[in-house]
Design a protein that fits this description.
The protein has 5 helices and no strands. With 123 residues, the chain is mostly helical. It folds into 2 domains: 78 residues, Multidrug-efflux Transporter Regulator, Chain: A, Domain 2; 37 residues.
Length: 123
């Protein structure tokens, strides 16, 4: 008796239902429609959005890109457009490559600053 009630799978969800499922405000969902062409739920005769499961999956992917992986909207749009599955491994490789490049840059900056200090101490 302690089991949770099953969530009924539906063909179409309202914006309010999607808002609850994704823990995003309705206005955020409407804004994302203007920013991501992959997200364009059809409207019924009354003009209400009817989200399908693939729309919800896209919303969750966008949410992950923006909120967890800290992409900008433009970056998330590019990532979605490329069609990559966004595996954790590739994200980790990208992070490691970025850190490596950052470290190289910091070493160069440190060397430049040390040379400037040496110059200032001599003159």
């Amino acid at each position: 008796m302690g089991s949770k009630p099953k969530q009924i799978k539906k063909l179409y969800y309202s914006i309010g239902e999607v808002s609850k499922l994704t823990k995003l405000k309705s206005y955020v969902l409407r804004y994302w429609e203007t920013e991501f062409r992959q997200l364009s739920p059809p409207k019924n005769r009354a003009g209400n959005r009817t989200y399908r499961q693939k729309d919800i999956d896209t919303i969750l992917l966008i949410k992950d890109l923006l909120y967890n992986r800290k992409f900008t909207i433009k970056g998330a749009r590019t990532q979605l457009h490329s069609g990559d599955p966004l595996e954790e491994v590739s994200a980790a490789q990208t992070d490691s490559e970025t850190q490596e490049k950052s470290s190289e840059i910091l070493v160069k900056v440190k060397q430049e600053l040390e040379s400037i200090l040496d110059y200032l101490h001599k003159h």
